[in-house]
Amino acid sequence: MSARQMKLGAFLMATGHHVAAWRHPQVPADAGLDFQHYRHLAQVAEAGCFDTLFLADSVAAATGDSASQMARSDHFEPLTLLSALSVVTERIGLISTVTTSYNEPYHVARQFASLDHLSGGRAGWNLVTSDAAAEAGNFGRDEHIGHAERYSRAREFHQVVTGLWDSWSADAFVRDKASGQYYDPAGRRELNHVGDHFKVKGPLNVARSPQGRPVVVQAGSSEAGRALAARTADVIFTAQPSLTAAQAFYADLKNRAATFGRSADELKIMPGVFVVVGETQALAQAKFEAFQDLVQPEVGVALLGRMLGNFDLSGYPLDGPLPELPLTDSGQRSRQQLLSELAEREHLNLAQLGRRIAGGRGHFSLIGTAAQIADQLQLWFQNGAADGFNVLVPHLPGGLEDFARQVVPELQRRGLFRTHYTGTTLREHLGLPEINGR
Amino acid sequence: MSARQMKLGAFLMATGHHVAAWRHPQVPADAGLDFQHYRHLAQVAEAGCFDTLFLADSVAAATGDSASQMARSDHFEPLTLLSALSVVTERIGLISTVTTSYNEPYHVARQFASLDHLSGGRAGWNLVTSDAAAEAGNFGRDEHIGHAERYSRAREFHQVVTGLWDSWSADAFVRDKASGQYYDPAGRRELNHVGDHFKVKGPLNVARSPQGRPVVVQAGSSEAGRALAARTADVIFTAQPSLTAAQAFYADLKNRAATFGRSADELKIMPGVFVVVGETQALAQAKFEAFQDLVQPEVGVALLGRMLGNFDLSGYPLDGPLPELPLTDSGQRSRQQLLSELAEREHLNLAQLGRRIAGGRGHFSLIGTAAQIADQLQLWFQNGAADGFNVLVPHLPGGLEDFARQVVPELQRRGLFRTHYTGTTLREHLGLPEINGR
């Protein structure tokens, strides 16, 4: 077995990542609110030794009419879901997205610390800024917070949350029954944070959590996103369409981390990879096409509009080009760029582009046999493009079962991936430095 | 069996409600962050057919030095805890306190709707306003929000949360695979709330929950608290020191509910009752005294100060009277009144009053045999003072085991309490009207 081991995340999304997955006969259409579905997914991923589960999130329902509606307007709130899943799993990490744009750091610090205790050290927070204008409307605002402001708030939010996680030393709670001393005041650290966005006194009302601090994941690819991630993230989740793009991103982030005095190992880079597994390449392709055939053109285009920064593209001709869209401050600049490059490279009209991203949403896509998929993952992993992958599958639970039972054993045979968990915490799985909190 | 059945809540608090419980040899001092402890409590309560678990909450750590520190600065965040408990229970309700003062209604609506789905219709929200100035400091404020403002915000908060719970009709998500229609637009209700405190567009990104709306509990006893509860609460939790006080409160709230066009049955009134069970009255008293003997005087007085509205009483002589304290706007007016009347009635000095409330914190207290306790509960229940009780025990898990295994069977023998669950949702347990959400 090679010393360096690949990291794997199971990016769960209700019926799967393919926009039309819910229409497939093998997919439970009501998966978003079916706890038994998620229990099964978590247990399949854990049997496959995945490092972590990974949940996306949005604090608004998807918009649009019923036909152009992705199956995402009815799903569990992720912290409650992961807390429930902590009880039916033992080792796998539990990462959820929570936005910094429309939350208070005290609540976020507390929920993840609580989840870290519930799970025995398996919690992770995917720190994002909100990109959907619809979210603003649920939190008292007419307009979305601008990009610069969002990142300034996110930076400070991270500072407050980690400061609150450090509220107590690991041995602060002595609980000495004889003397009546419940905690040692020397182990208590008030935060007294005063900044541009937040004023938070602390301490947190949760003892130091098993991991010292839950794992912090970030996904921003803009300049501001990269700068924040290089300084503060433990893990970076990113969409990279090709090996060369991924290598450039990987090198850039590892270099940036070094400028903050961090070693390359302290920052794990995990691109997303959309995977469809089949016993032959043709069977895999046919499996994928079965989902593609279920995509209504207006659904693909609506998804495209959301990904580009919540644009309504319904007025544009389906057989026309991707229209020039303003690179608005509230939009998803880095994703806009990714998708317009894709359209240009592959000469896709609007409907075709919508269909093209209906599965992997611009992530690196692999459709083939387990060996073919393992070849590509190995190539990226061993050539400076990835420390591991966040795995997106078209449909659930089938796609995850395929990956865990076919691709994982292939990676294990090659000595690239663990055959059993050696640690108990998410930090241990990921090979991140311990934070002992003394 | 009599037609009308008593409702019972198991008010869980880490090591128990007695301020010195954690020092007792039979109590796990680190219970606040021990999931196995809570799993056991939930299962004991469910075996005893309790209607619900009930969790208090605060969004700040307790203050004071280590010796005057109640075992409450290290505990789970309640929504994550209840979500985890939903997996290891099947019938019992899951109620948590969440403050309206330092939260956003979209998050709160979403978390409880999600818990309601996770648990198959067992979620309940204890709506409170924050009374601890320490909480303000964790949410950007120097000063606590004033009483009137808190209640004005709470009223509107409730309106937004229930409006968001009504975002979707029960049959909105049709998920028709053949046509590709995921939901029926006719079942979607945007909220578009614009008020003094909140502006929330909606809809919620969670489908209608199994109970239609999670159960809403309130605990305010002030004029503003009563007015809000009579209009909007499903259940009222209250501290009433005596039968006559409880009867007056009960009559007042049921009358107020009627003025809002609500039937008496739509509002369940559940006073807290602090219970110590023993095989004889003397044994029960001895059990209680074992806890009392562990109370350090300054700990009792510190608890008293917190209950009176976060006053620091450490400068006052322990053998002197309860000092005259300002009825501040930020204080707990109704609890101040309760405690000063108690001190006067029983001629207690400061240390004695602290010790007096170290167990039941001013709630109705019963120390005796199962039959004696059942007598009193029956008396209140059958004489217009209570629809049921929220049960506080000195220590956990022992006190809850005593109640579930000794008092519950006694109530069952008298036909006052269920011997098995007949419904599956918390609304069904409590006999509350169904909300079908069509």
UniProtKB/TrEMBL annotation, chains A, B:
The keyword Oxidoreductase applies. Residues 18-385 form the Luciferase-like domain. It holds the Pfam family Bac_luciferase. The keyword DNA-binding does not apply. InterPro entries: Diverse_substr_monoxygenases (IPR051260), Luciferase-like_dom (IPR011251), Luciferase-like_sf (IPR036661), NTA_MOA (IPR016215). SUPFAM superfamilies: Bacterial luciferase-like. Keywords: Flavoprotein, FMN, Monooxygenase, Oxidoreductase. Belongs to the NtaA/SnaA/DszA monooxygenase family. NCBIfam families: FMN_nitrolo. This is LLM class flavin-dependent oxidoreductase.
